[in-house]
Specification:
The chain is an alpha+beta fold and 324 residues long. The chain folds into 3 domains: 30 residues; 215 residues, no CATH class; 47 residues, no CATH class. It has 10 helices and 8 strands. Strands 5-4-1-7-6-2-3-8 form an 8-stranded mixed sheet, sandwiched between helices. α5 packs antiparallel against α6 and α6 runs antiparallel to α9. It starts with a helix and ends with a strand.
Length: 324
Protein backbone atom coordinates (compact mmCIF):
# COMPACT_ATOMS: atom_id res chain seq x y z
CA UNK A 1 0.00 0.00 0.00
CA UNK A 2 2.81 2.39 0.90
CA UNK A 3 4.62 1.74 -2.37
CA UNK A 4 1.40 2.27 -4.31
CA UNK A 5 0.87 5.64 -2.52
CA UNK A 6 4.45 6.74 -3.30
CA UNK A 7 4.10 5.77 -6.94
CA UNK A 8 0.81 7.67 -7.14
CA UNK A 9 2.28 10.84 -5.61
CA UNK A 10 5.54 10.74 -7.57
CA UNK A 11 4.10 12.35 -10.75
CA UNK A 12 2.84 15.27 -8.64
CA UNK A 13 6.18 15.91 -6.96
CA UNK A 14 7.84 17.76 -9.85
CA UNK A 15 4.94 20.24 -10.52
CA UNK A 16 4.70 21.02 -6.80
CA UNK A 17 8.46 21.66 -6.66
CA UNK A 18 8.27 23.99 -9.68
CA UNK A 19 5.40 25.92 -8.10
CA UNK A 20 7.37 26.26 -4.87
CA UNK A 21 10.41 27.67 -6.70
CA UNK A 22 8.25 30.14 -8.65
CA UNK A 23 6.59 31.46 -5.49
CA UNK A 24 9.97 31.72 -3.80
CA UNK A 25 11.40 33.81 -6.63
CA UNK A 26 8.34 36.07 -6.85
CA UNK A 27 8.09 36.85 -3.18
CA UNK A 28 11.85 37.20 -2.76
CA UNK A 29 11.61 40.22 -5.10
CA UNK A 30 8.97 41.96 -2.99
CA UNK A 31 11.38 43.66 -0.58
CA UNK A 32 13.31 45.12 -3.52
CA UNK A 33 10.14 46.62 -4.95
CA UNK A 34 9.22 48.08 -1.57
CA UNK A 35 12.68 49.57 -1.16
CA UNK A 36 11.79 52.54 -3.34
CA UNK A 37 11.96 55.70 -1.31
CA UNK A 38 10.31 59.09 -1.10
CA UNK A 39 10.92 61.78 -3.68
CA UNK A 40 10.72 65.54 -4.10
CA UNK A 41 9.74 67.37 -7.28
CA UNK A 42 9.86 70.97 -8.51
CA UNK A 43 8.71 71.86 -12.02
CA UNK A 44 6.75 74.04 -14.35
CA UNK A 45 6.39 75.48 -17.82
CA UNK A 46 4.64 74.59 -21.05
CA UNK A 47 5.53 73.71 -24.60
CA UNK A 48 4.30 76.98 -26.10
CA UNK A 49 6.66 79.48 -27.64
CA UNK A 50 7.41 82.40 -25.24
CA UNK A 51 5.83 85.75 -26.06
CA UNK A 52 9.04 87.69 -25.41
CA UNK A 53 12.33 87.82 -27.26
CA UNK A 54 10.97 89.12 -30.59
CA UNK A 55 8.37 86.48 -31.42
CA UNK A 56 4.79 86.41 -30.32
CA UNK A 57 3.51 82.94 -31.23
CA UNK A 58 4.63 79.64 -32.72
CA UNK A 59 3.59 80.77 -36.19
CA UNK A 60 4.32 84.50 -36.41
CA UNK A 61 7.29 86.78 -36.03
CA UNK A 62 6.62 90.40 -35.08
CA UNK A 63 9.65 92.59 -34.39
CA UNK A 64 8.93 95.75 -32.37
CA UNK A 65 8.16 98.92 -34.35
CA UNK A 66 6.69 97.19 -37.42
CA UNK A 67 8.47 96.05 -40.55
CA UNK A 68 11.58 93.91 -40.64
CA UNK A 69 14.70 95.12 -38.89
CA UNK A 70 18.22 94.95 -40.20
CA UNK A 71 17.99 97.39 -43.11
CA UNK A 72 18.78 101.15 -43.17
CA UNK A 73 15.91 103.54 -43.42
CA UNK A 74 13.62 101.96 -40.84
CA UNK A 75 12.51 98.81 -42.69
CA UNK A 76 9.89 98.09 -45.34
CA UNK A 77 6.74 100.13 -44.76
CA UNK A 78 4.18 102.04 -46.78
CA UNK A 79 6.43 105.12 -47.32
CA UNK A 80 8.90 102.79 -48.98
CA UNK A 81 6.27 101.04 -51.08
CA UNK A 82 4.28 103.97 -52.42
CA UNK A 83 6.93 105.31 -54.83
CA UNK A 84 7.04 101.94 -56.59
CA UNK A 85 3.49 100.67 -56.26
CA UNK A 86 1.29 103.68 -55.99
CA UNK A 87 -2.06 103.83 -54.32
CA UNK A 88 -4.22 102.92 -57.26
CA UNK A 89 -1.92 101.40 -59.87
CA UNK A 90 1.39 99.61 -60.22
CA UNK A 91 0.97 96.00 -59.24
CA UNK A 92 -2.75 96.33 -58.67
CA UNK A 93 -3.06 98.06 -55.29
CA UNK A 94 -3.54 95.72 -52.33
CA UNK A 95 -2.66 92.61 -54.32
CA UNK A 96 0.66 94.13 -55.31
CA UNK A 97 1.42 95.02 -51.69
CA UNK A 98 0.80 91.41 -50.59
CA UNK A 99 3.10 90.10 -53.32
CA UNK A 100 5.80 92.55 -52.30
CA UNK A 101 5.58 91.53 -48.62
CA UNK A 102 5.86 87.86 -49.59
CA UNK A 103 8.97 88.58 -51.64
CA UNK A 104 10.43 90.76 -48.88
CA UNK A 105 9.77 88.06 -46.27
CA UNK A 106 11.54 85.47 -48.43
CA UNK A 107 14.50 87.81 -49.00
CA UNK A 108 14.89 88.59 -45.30
CA UNK A 109 14.74 84.92 -44.31
CA UNK A 110 17.35 84.04 -46.94
CA UNK A 111 19.60 86.90 -45.79
CA UNK A 112 19.38 85.82 -42.13
CA UNK A 113 20.01 82.18 -42.99
CA UNK A 114 23.16 83.09 -44.94
CA UNK A 115 24.35 85.56 -42.28
CA UNK A 116 23.80 82.95 -39.53
CA UNK A 117 25.81 80.26 -41.31
CA UNK A 118 22.73 78.31 -42.37
CA UNK A 119 21.34 77.88 -38.80
CA UNK A 120 17.58 77.91 -38.42
CA UNK A 121 16.06 81.10 -37.05
CA UNK A 122 13.91 79.85 -34.16
CA UNK A 123 11.43 82.73 -34.36
CA UNK A 124 10.52 82.04 -37.99
CA UNK A 125 9.64 78.39 -37.50
CA UNK A 126 6.29 77.09 -36.32
CA UNK A 127 7.98 73.84 -35.28
CA UNK A 128 11.51 74.75 -34.07
CA UNK A 129 14.14 72.43 -32.66
CA UNK A 130 13.96 71.78 -28.91
CA UNK A 131 16.68 70.31 -26.69
CA UNK A 132 15.47 67.98 -23.94
CA UNK A 133 18.35 67.56 -21.49
CA UNK A 134 18.69 65.31 -18.44
CA UNK A 135 21.44 65.52 -15.83
CA UNK A 136 21.71 63.25 -12.76
CA UNK A 137 24.04 63.61 -9.81
CA UNK A 138 24.60 60.98 -7.12
CA UNK A 139 25.93 62.37 -3.84
CA UNK A 140 26.93 60.82 -0.55
CA UNK A 141 24.17 60.87 2.04
CA UNK A 142 26.30 63.17 4.23
CA UNK A 143 25.13 66.04 1.99
CA UNK A 144 22.02 66.43 4.14
CA UNK A 145 22.16 70.23 3.83
CA UNK A 146 21.50 69.81 0.11
CA UNK A 147 18.21 68.07 0.90
CA UNK A 148 17.31 70.98 3.18
CA UNK A 149 18.14 73.48 0.43
CA UNK A 150 15.97 71.62 -2.09
CA UNK A 151 13.11 71.36 0.41
CA UNK A 152 13.26 75.11 1.07
CA UNK A 153 13.44 75.80 -2.65
CA UNK A 154 10.33 73.71 -3.26
CA UNK A 155 8.42 75.56 -0.53
CA UNK A 156 9.31 79.06 -1.75
CA UNK A 157 9.90 78.74 -5.52
CA UNK A 158 7.94 80.65 -8.15
CA UNK A 159 7.38 77.97 -10.78
CA UNK A 160 4.63 79.80 -12.67
CA UNK A 161 6.58 82.61 -14.35
CA UNK A 162 9.39 82.10 -16.86
CA UNK A 163 11.79 84.23 -14.79
CA UNK A 164 10.93 82.28 -11.64
CA UNK A 165 11.50 78.92 -13.33
CA UNK A 166 14.90 79.99 -14.65
CA UNK A 167 15.86 81.22 -11.17
CA UNK A 168 14.81 77.93 -9.54
CA UNK A 169 16.90 75.94 -12.02
CA UNK A 170 19.83 78.26 -11.37
CA UNK A 171 19.51 77.90 -7.58
CA UNK A 172 19.34 74.10 -7.78
CA UNK A 173 22.38 73.96 -10.07
CA UNK A 174 24.26 76.27 -7.73
CA UNK A 175 23.35 74.15 -4.69
CA UNK A 176 24.83 71.08 -6.41
CA UNK A 177 27.97 72.99 -7.42
CA UNK A 178 28.53 73.99 -3.79
CA UNK A 179 28.93 70.35 -2.71
CA UNK A 180 31.61 68.85 -5.01
CA UNK A 181 33.13 66.95 -2.08
CA UNK A 182 30.01 64.75 -2.04
CA UNK A 183 29.84 63.99 -5.79
CA UNK A 184 30.12 60.27 -6.48
CA UNK A 185 28.09 59.46 -9.60
CA UNK A 186 26.75 61.43 -12.57
CA UNK A 187 25.21 60.91 -15.99
CA UNK A 188 22.87 62.38 -18.54
CA UNK A 189 22.49 63.50 -22.12
CA UNK A 190 20.53 65.59 -24.62
CA UNK A 191 17.88 64.61 -27.14
CA UNK A 192 16.95 66.92 -30.03
CA UNK A 193 13.30 67.01 -31.06
CA UNK A 194 10.87 69.26 -32.86
CA UNK A 195 8.40 71.26 -30.79
CA UNK A 196 5.47 69.00 -31.70
CA UNK A 197 7.23 65.93 -30.26
CA UNK A 198 9.46 67.46 -27.55
CA UNK A 199 6.73 67.39 -24.91
CA UNK A 200 6.34 63.62 -25.29
CA UNK A 201 10.09 63.15 -24.89
CA UNK A 202 10.18 65.40 -21.82
CA UNK A 203 7.23 63.59 -20.21
CA UNK A 204 8.80 60.22 -20.95
CA UNK A 205 11.98 61.14 -19.09
CA UNK A 206 10.04 62.69 -16.22
CA UNK A 207 7.79 59.66 -15.74
CA UNK A 208 10.77 57.31 -15.86
CA UNK A 209 12.36 59.14 -12.94
CA UNK A 210 9.16 59.63 -10.95
CA UNK A 211 8.35 55.92 -11.22
CA UNK A 212 11.47 55.21 -9.15
CA UNK A 213 9.83 56.86 -6.10
CA UNK A 214 7.40 55.02 -3.88
CA UNK A 215 5.80 58.37 -3.07
CA UNK A 216 6.25 62.06 -3.93
CA UNK A 217 6.30 63.63 -0.49
CA UNK A 218 7.03 67.25 -1.47
CA UNK A 219 6.10 68.86 -4.82
CA UNK A 220 5.82 72.33 -6.30
CA UNK A 221 4.63 72.16 -9.91
CA UNK A 222 3.32 75.33 -11.54
CA UNK A 223 3.05 76.93 -8.08
CA UNK A 224 0.90 74.09 -6.70
CA UNK A 225 2.64 73.14 -3.44
CA UNK A 226 1.82 69.72 -1.96
CA UNK A 227 3.39 67.89 0.96
CA UNK A 228 2.71 64.38 2.24
CA UNK A 229 3.98 62.20 5.06
CA UNK A 230 6.13 59.41 3.71
CA UNK A 231 5.41 55.87 4.86
CA UNK A 232 8.98 55.58 6.08
CA UNK A 233 9.14 58.91 7.86
CA UNK A 234 9.98 59.16 11.54
CA UNK A 235 7.17 58.96 14.05
CA UNK A 236 6.39 61.72 16.56
CA UNK A 237 8.66 60.02 19.10
CA UNK A 238 11.63 60.23 16.74
CA UNK A 239 11.69 56.45 16.17
CA UNK A 240 11.19 54.68 12.88
CA UNK A 241 7.64 53.41 12.47
CA UNK A 242 9.11 49.99 11.69
CA UNK A 243 12.43 49.38 13.51
CA UNK A 244 13.28 46.49 11.18
CA UNK A 245 13.54 48.96 8.24
CA UNK A 246 17.14 49.73 9.14
CA UNK A 247 17.96 46.01 9.09
CA UNK A 248 16.20 45.41 5.77
CA UNK A 249 17.44 48.54 3.98
CA UNK A 250 20.86 49.18 5.43
CA UNK A 251 22.25 52.65 6.03
CA UNK A 252 21.27 55.60 3.81
CA UNK A 253 24.27 56.01 1.53
CA UNK A 254 23.27 58.26 -1.37
CA UNK A 255 21.14 61.17 -2.60
CA UNK A 256 20.15 61.32 -6.27
CA UNK A 257 19.22 64.65 -7.89
CA UNK A 258 17.85 64.81 -11.44
CA UNK A 259 17.62 68.00 -13.53
CA UNK A 260 15.39 68.07 -16.62
CA UNK A 261 15.09 71.00 -19.03
CA UNK A 262 13.44 71.63 -22.40
CA UNK A 263 15.03 74.59 -24.16
CA UNK A 264 14.68 76.37 -27.49
CA UNK A 265 17.51 75.70 -29.91
CA UNK A 266 20.58 73.61 -29.27
CA UNK A 267 21.58 73.06 -25.64
CA UNK A 268 23.89 70.09 -25.16
CA UNK A 269 25.77 68.99 -22.05
CA UNK A 270 29.15 67.27 -22.36
CA UNK A 271 29.64 63.55 -21.82
CA UNK A 272 30.08 63.11 -18.06
CA UNK A 273 33.40 61.36 -17.49
CA UNK A 274 34.67 63.27 -14.48
CA UNK A 275 34.09 66.12 -12.06
CA UNK A 276 35.13 68.78 -14.59
CA UNK A 277 32.47 67.59 -17.05
CA UNK A 278 29.88 67.58 -14.28
CA UNK A 279 30.81 71.12 -13.24
CA UNK A 280 30.50 72.29 -16.84
CA UNK A 281 27.10 70.61 -17.22
CA UNK A 282 25.79 72.20 -14.01
CA UNK A 283 27.01 75.61 -15.19
CA UNK A 284 25.16 75.12 -18.46
CA UNK A 285 21.92 74.28 -16.63
CA UNK A 286 22.29 77.25 -14.32
CA UNK A 287 22.87 79.60 -17.24
CA UNK A 288 19.74 78.78 -19.27
CA UNK A 289 17.92 82.11 -19.89
CA UNK A 290 14.24 82.43 -19.13
CA UNK A 291 13.27 83.13 -22.76
CA UNK A 292 14.82 79.82 -23.85
CA UNK A 293 13.48 77.63 -21.03
CA UNK A 294 10.15 76.03 -21.98
CA UNK A 295 9.82 73.55 -19.11
CA UNK A 296 11.92 72.07 -16.32
CA UNK A 297 11.83 69.60 -13.45
CA UNK A 298 14.06 68.97 -10.45
CA UNK A 299 13.64 65.57 -8.77
CA UNK A 300 15.48 64.15 -5.80
CA UNK A 301 15.38 61.10 -3.57
CA UNK A 302 15.22 60.46 -0.68
CA UNK A 303 13.17 63.46 0.38
CA UNK A 304 11.51 62.45 3.65
CA UNK A 305 13.49 62.51 6.87
CA UNK A 306 14.54 59.01 7.91
CA UNK A 307 14.28 57.64 4.38
CA UNK A 308 17.24 55.85 2.80
CA UNK A 309 18.80 55.10 -0.57
CA UNK A 310 21.31 52.26 -0.38
CA UNK A 311 23.98 51.24 -2.86
CA UNK A 312 21.78 48.30 -3.93
CA UNK A 313 18.91 50.69 -4.66
CA UNK A 314 21.21 52.96 -6.66
CA UNK A 315 22.60 50.13 -8.77
CA UNK A 316 19.11 48.78 -9.45
CA UNK A 317 17.43 52.08 -10.35
CA UNK A 318 20.30 54.13 -11.82
CA UNK A 319 22.57 51.65 -13.65
CA UNK A 320 23.74 54.19 -16.27
CA UNK A 321 25.45 56.54 -13.79
CA UNK A 322 29.25 56.76 -13.89
CA UNK A 323 31.77 57.36 -11.14
CA UNK A 324 33.13 60.91 -11.10
Amino acid sequence: MRKKLQSALKPLFKPVLVMFLVFTLVFSQAPAALARGSGGRIGGGSFRMPSSGGYSSPRTYAPPGGGYRGYPGGGFGFPFLFPFIGIGGGFGGLFGILIFFALANFAVRTFRSVAGGGEEEVGYSSNPKISVTRLQVGLLAQARELQTELNNLAETADTESSQGRAQVLQEASLALMRHPEYWVYAGGGTNQARLNSAESEFNRLSLAERSKFSEETLTNVNNQLKAATANKALSSTGELDNPTDLINQGPGEYIIVTLLAATLGKTEIPNINGSDDLRQALSLFGGIPSDKLLAFEILWTPQAEGDTLTSDDLLAEYPDLKLV
